[in-house]
Amino acid sequence: MYKKEVLKNGVRLLTVPMPSTQTFTILVMVATGSRHETRENNGISHFLEHMFFKGTKKRPTAFALATELDKVGGEFNAFTSKEYTGYYAKVGGEHAALAVDVIGDILLNSKFERAEIERERGVILEEINLYENNPVMHIEDIFESCLYGDTPAGWDTIGTKENVSRFRRKDFLRYWQGHYQGKNIAAGLAGRFSARDIKAVKEIFARVTGGEKNKLENFAVKQTAPRLKIKRQETKQANFSLGVPAYGYYHQDYEAAKLLGVILGGSMSSRLFIAVRERRGLAYQVHTDVEGYRDGGYLTTVVGTSPDKTEKAVKIILEEYKKVSREGVSAAELTKAKDFIKGKLALHLESSDELAGWYLKQEILDREVMAPEEYSQKISAVKLSDIKRVAGEIFQNNRLNLAVIGYRIKENGLKRLLKL
User: Fold this and answer.
1) CA 91, CA 291: separation in Å to the nearest integer?
2) Which of 197, 229, 254, 289 lies in the 20 to 30 Å Cα band around 138?
3) What positions does the domain Peptidase M16 N-terminal occupy (predicted)?
4) Helical residues (DSSP H) of 34-95, grouped into ranges
5) pLDDT tens-place string over residues 91-100
6) 90: pLDDT confidence band, cut at 50, 70 and 90?
């Protein structure tokens, strides 16, 4: 069971002991991401995340930082999303104090040297090239751009090449000082740790200024007709994402949408995996996912297929969307989906890093924190009527969004198909 304590400056500390594990994870999450950016500084959250690993006064270089955890076989990394940024280190429990010190050091004492900024600028520009040249990775960015348009929710988290090329040290300092404040920070310890480790975390993060809590402007998808966005790129395969707006984390139907996603394309025995891949051999990759943010989300099915098979694959998915919205699902399908989600959850949460992420993500998004057992109960409570009602609400003509990356894409043919 987790415990939560709030420091005087607003930093939230969650501790999740795991007596049976030999590992320890410290995860620190900050409530800032690309949705907190402007058009002019889009990409700075992600760039700043990189800069925390380039040296502190105590560990002056990236090599010195990496060596500290490499020498004990530890893992450390960071990630940036639209709504939060996270930093973690995972080590054997006997090295917990080292992991705490390293993560605290980078977040409070990074130097942000100009020479390192210039070097990392090139790294991030190549990272952008990596995403743009990998349709499987990039298709969801194109889908969100299609769905949310020219808004922070629709911009790429990694930013634009133009912005990345012009950020200067003063920009990073301003963003760091303005966003990395106590009320925006949650720290979590999971696995095998001691009271000394908890005390050390408190002492480190007590030095952070309390500041003001970041705010997000609510966004709503205003859509009156189907949308199609095509990125023409010479590839042997066309990758597309076909979906609809759904629900945010706080919505009462979020869990029902998650179950619907599993039934449609969440596993190798799901409806769309069987219909698109197994029965017709149209694709290797077929997957339905449900993404949630604070105040919105979406359900989408991603497929990679040949350009001449794209229209056929889109038609099959739309037929299944229409069918499930009108007929619902069977009791056997719902039971299997519930067991699938609960089984995957059990597998994931065996490790200290996944368990830390489970609690911290909920905390940083200001969601009422649920233990895994509580979440499983919520999944179990979803009824057949909930699935049919949710499918009927989200699968409507004026909510359809299709994003495509590929070559020889027949735009007019796809436009004609976008109806239920």
Assistant:
1) 30
2) 254
3) 16-160
4) 44-51, 62-70
5) 999 999 999 9
6) very high
**Using CA atoms, how far apart are residues 254 and 292, in angstroms rounded to an integer?**
8
Distances (CA, A) of 251 to 102, 190, 351: 37, 28, 28
Selecting among 5, 37, 40, 49, the annotated active-site residue is 49
Query: In the chain, what percentage of residues exceed pLDDT 90?
Result: 95
107: which DSSP letter?
A: H
pLDDT (average), residues 348-375: 94
Res 221: pLDDT: 81
Could you tell me how far CA 321 lies from the centroid of its own chain? 24
pTM of the model: 0.95
Structure tokens at 260: 């619907």
DSSP assignment of 310-355 = HHHHHHHHHHHHHHHHHH---HHHHHHHHHHHHHHHHHHTTSHHHH
C-alpha distances (whole Å) from 294 to each of 35, 153, 216, 220 are 11, 11, 9, 11
Rounded to whole angstroms, how far apart are CA atoms 273 and 281?
10
What is the mean pLDDT of the segment spanning 395-418? 95
* CB atoms near residue 248 (< 10 Å): 16
Nearest to 280 by CA among 316, 304, 246: 316
- Among 367, 355, 362, 365, which Cα is nearest to 88's? 355
94 is catalytic: no
